[in-house]
Amino acid sequence: MLAVKLKGQVTRDRRLIVELPKDIAPGAVEVIVLHEKSAPAPRPRTRRKAAHPGFGIWAKRKDIANSAEFAAQLRRQVERRQDGRE
Q1: Tens-digit pLDDT profile for residues 32-56
Q2: pTM, whole model, 2 decimals?
Q3: Where would I find the beta strands (DSSP E) of the chain?
Q4: How many CA atoms lie less than 13 Å away from 29 in the CB half-sphere?
Q5: How confident is the model at residue 83 (pLDDT cuts 50, 70, 90)?
Q6: Residues 6+ positions from 27 with CB-CB distance below 8 Å
Q7: Residue 61 within any structural domain of the chain
């Protein structure tokens, strides 16, 4: 048995096109196709903020003047240790 590594193209109508060397005699062959998977299309990094279910949950709160500072304060409280030490 002779093993030959060839490169080819798959057409849109799903046909394989390869150039065979002249030393390959006519007859039956067995073909193994190794195909690199295409990377999935990248998803957009940004989404509309309004699509997030949490968007605007503090909008009508009168006790929150700066929502960014309020969120930072909540994070600090959550990150504190149970015994009150930071």
Answers
A1: 888 887 777 777 776 666 677 777 7
A2: 0.36
A3: 8-10, 16-18
A4: 11
A5: low
A6: none
A7: yes
Name beta bridge partners: 16.
Answer: 10
Q: Is residue 5 part of a domain?
A: no
Domain of residue 63 covers: 54-79
Asked if the model's pLDDT at residue 17 lies above 90, the reply is yes
Residues 19-32, mean pLDDT to the nearest whole number: 88
Token code pair at residue 27: 């007859």
Q: Total structural domains in the chain?
A: 1
Number of continuous H segments (helices) and E segments (strands) in the chain: 1, 2
- Whether 24 is covered by a domain: the verdict is no
Reduced to 3 DSSP states, what percent helix, strand and coil does the chain have, rounded to the nearest 5?
A: 20, 5, 75
Query: Do the strands 8-10 and 16-18 form a parallel or antiparallel pair, or are they unpaired?
Result: antiparallel
